[in-house]
């Protein structure tokens, strides 16, 4: 993908002067010019032509303010990252060439935590693993919500992208408030009640009083979030995971129709994750090069064989039931009734069953011939995610088309893993969901990629769909093919009424929207960032 066509404002002498001032404010060790580090920062899981002249690493909010003031003085664009794990959407690569990477990883303090009121306040560099470990250490009865991205991914980076996880708190931006933001000019503002000195409810009440501004600082280039309060979920008395599968490719519509009423009436409190066979297979193993005779995309007869051998359906789904034992039993009954006749397998799993299965897996294999321990290896991380336990297991799927196994320490950017994620939203309506899936499958297969698709019933009324274009960047021509496929997919989905909820760092320009919205956003950007120094082009309507 080519970078947003934004003129590089900073000239070389300006950059030199800015670097000198940043060194004075942050210390020499926090202004990085090492060629290998810069190349790494320019590398995503797809091709880009963006260059990064330097990386700056502020350690606190005052230093972020200084970085932005100096950036304005010398007209040097900067691009903020918190965890920098935005794989499939651009990794750490800035939206415009010539941008200095503003790496917030050093700002990794947990600023506040309240067990009774169930929230945590963090700086942007705080990772999923860090919060998980913090709660464990304190023997907290609270759960965080985790994404399937790495334990090293940040909470703030994900929330500002409006990402999602798996528990009842899975829609992340719906569970945050009290943000501190450094504006592009270097001034600070706080949102909600946090702006009133001494207010006791900054971390507790989302709306505050007056215009609600938090949304302006998500999926935008209007500020750098330096603090955020995130709500945590009280662990339920009882938790049970459910898994079901359907052997018929045409079964998706009736599954969605069956689940929607249960989401709407509160029986299912958490996101439901539905995946097609390609998505499941890429989670189980790498591309079956041998069975496919080296051909791509995966021949249908090979998929049929593998589905049988590895025991998964055309569609597979998972989710969690949370509550008292009685509540969970009732939800289980309602889910069973709703899915009767629509799925081939429906299983419920709790901690005790999981432990038992582990103990008897050898015996099970002897009797049935099926390697249950391998299945358990794959189920455990998912079972954990449904309870807010981060894992790096799903990251292995980025190595799908690679010919060597994923290394112990996975780095999809450096290892040449090709990954582009396109994320349209569908109504929670069976027929319309099938329409979207058909469009995506046809497009990807035509370009020679396996249409790995997941659909997450993120709210009661909508499904966030993630379509993965997964390939090997070391195979010549694949980068170009993947970019062309992504562009066509994005265009067709938007034309058919399924715009994406999230964009890659380099493809945010050119969104087709009503002129009113574009006009407001342009005015806000001009007011807050007249020199266009913060993440130029990121989610920005073209001038
Ligand atoms: C296998 C796999 C599984 C994944 N699973 C999920 C999933 O379940 N859910 C999901 O949502 N995503 C998922 N992802 C996508 C992605 O990896 C995550 O969203 C991840 O959390 C993003 O990385 P980060 O949190 O480190 O954010 P960053 O990379 O730091 O930032 C993301 C974006 O936000 C902006 N930003 C970051 N910090 C700030 C700030 N402080 N102020 C202003 N702007 C900021 C950045 O400019 C960037 O555009 C997955 C990816 C892979 C490869």
Structural descriptors:
binds flavin-adenine dinucleotide, 543 residues, 18% strand, five-stranded antiparallel beta sheet, disordered N terminus, alpha+beta, globular
Estimate the mean pLDDT confidence.
94
Largest sheet: 8 strands, antiparallel
What's the alpha carbon Rg, rounded to whole Å?
23 Å
User: What structural category arises from helix and sheet content?
Assistant: alpha+beta
Shape: globular
Number of helices: 15
The ligands bound in this entry are: flavin-adenine dinucleotide
Could you give the distance between the termini? 20 Å
Q: Are there runs of 5+ residues with pLDDT below 50, and where?
A: 2-9
Question: Which helices and strands, and how do they pair?
Answer:
Elements: H1 12-26, E1 31-32, H2 35-41, E2 55-56, H3 61-74, E3 78-81, E4 100-103, E5 110-114, E6 119-122, H4 128-137, E7 142-143, H5 155-160, E8 176-182, E9 188-190, E10 224-231, E11 233-234, E12 238-246, H6 252-264, E13 272-276, H7 277-284, H8 300-310, E14 315-323, H9 325-339, E15 345-349, H10 351-359, H11 361-368, H12 372-385, E16 417-422, E17 425-427, H13 430-446, E18 452-457, E19 462-472, H14 478-495, H15 515-528
Parallel strand pairs: 2-4, 3-4
Antiparallel strand pairs: 1-2, 5-6, 6-10, 7-11, 8-9, 8-10, 12-14, 12-15, 13-14, 13-18, 16-19, 17-19, 18-19
Helix pairs in contact: 1-3, 6-9, 6-13, 13-14
């Amino acid at each position: 993908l080519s970078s947003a066509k934004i003129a590089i404002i900073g000239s070389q002498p300006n950059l030199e002067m800015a670097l000198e001032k940043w060194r004075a404010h942050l210390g020499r060790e926090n202004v990085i010019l090492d060629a290998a580090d810069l190349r790494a920062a320019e590398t995503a899981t797809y091709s880009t032509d963006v260059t990064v002249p330097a990386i700056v690493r502020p350690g606190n909010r005052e230093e972020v303010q200084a970085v932005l003031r100096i950036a304005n003085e010398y007209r040097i664009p900067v691009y903020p990252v918190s965890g920098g794990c935005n794989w499939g959407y651009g990794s750490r690569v800035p939206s415009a060439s010539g941008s200095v990477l503003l790496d917030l990883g050093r700002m990794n303090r947990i600023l506040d935590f309240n067990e009774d009121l169930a929230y945590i306040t963090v700086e942007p560099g705080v990772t999923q693993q860090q919060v998980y470990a913090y709660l464990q250490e304190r023997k907290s009865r609270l759960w965080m919500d985790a994404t399937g991205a790495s334990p090293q991914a940040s909470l703030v980076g994900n929330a500002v992208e409006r990402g999602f996880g798996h528990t009842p708190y899975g829609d992340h931006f719906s569970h945050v408030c009290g943000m501190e933001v450094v504006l592009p000019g270097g001034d600070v503002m706080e949102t909600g009640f946090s702006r009133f000195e001494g207010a006791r409810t900054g971390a507790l009440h989302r709306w505050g009083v007056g215009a609600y501004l938090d949304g302006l600082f998500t999926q935008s280039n209007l500020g750098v979030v330096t603090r955020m309060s995130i709500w945590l979920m009280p662990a339920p008395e009882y938790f049970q995971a459910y898994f079901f599968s359907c052997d018929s490719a045409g079964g998706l519509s009736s599954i969605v129709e069956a689940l929607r009423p249960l989401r709407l009436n509160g029986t299912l409190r958490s996101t439901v994750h539905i995946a097609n066979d390609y998505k499941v297979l890429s989670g189980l193993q790498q591309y079956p090069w041998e069975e496919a005779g080296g051909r791509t995309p995966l021949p249908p007869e090979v998929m049929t064989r593998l589905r049988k051998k590895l025991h998964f359906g055309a569609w597979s789904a998972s989710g969690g039931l949370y509550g008292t034992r009685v509540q969970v039993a009732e939800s289980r009954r309602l889910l069973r009734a709703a899915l009767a006749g629509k799925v081939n397998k429906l299983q419920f799993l709790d901690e005790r069953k999981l432990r038992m299965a582990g103990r008897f897996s050898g015996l099970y294999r002897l009797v049935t011939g099926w390697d249950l321990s391998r299945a358990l290896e794959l189920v455990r991380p998912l079972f954990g995610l449904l309870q807010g336990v981060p894992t790096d297991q799903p990251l292995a799927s980025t190595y799908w088309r690679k010919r060597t196994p994923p290394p112990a320490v996975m780095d999809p950017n450096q290892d040449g893993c090709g990954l582009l994620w396109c994320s349209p939203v569908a109504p929670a309506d069976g027929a319309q969901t099938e329409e979207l899936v058909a469009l995506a499958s046809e497009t990807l297969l035509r370009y020679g990629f396996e249409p790995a698709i997941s659909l997450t019933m993120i709210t009661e009324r909508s499904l966030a769909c993630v379509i993965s274009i997964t390939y090997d960047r070391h195979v010549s021509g694949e980068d170009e093919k993947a970019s062309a496929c992504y562009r066509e997919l994005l265009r067709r989905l938007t034309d058919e009424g399924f715009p994406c909820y999230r964009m890659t760092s380099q493809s945010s320009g050119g969104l087709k929207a009503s002129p009113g919205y574009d006009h407001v956003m342009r005015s806000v950007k001009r007011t807050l960032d007249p020199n266009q120094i913060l993440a130029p082009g990121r989610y920005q309507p073209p001038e």
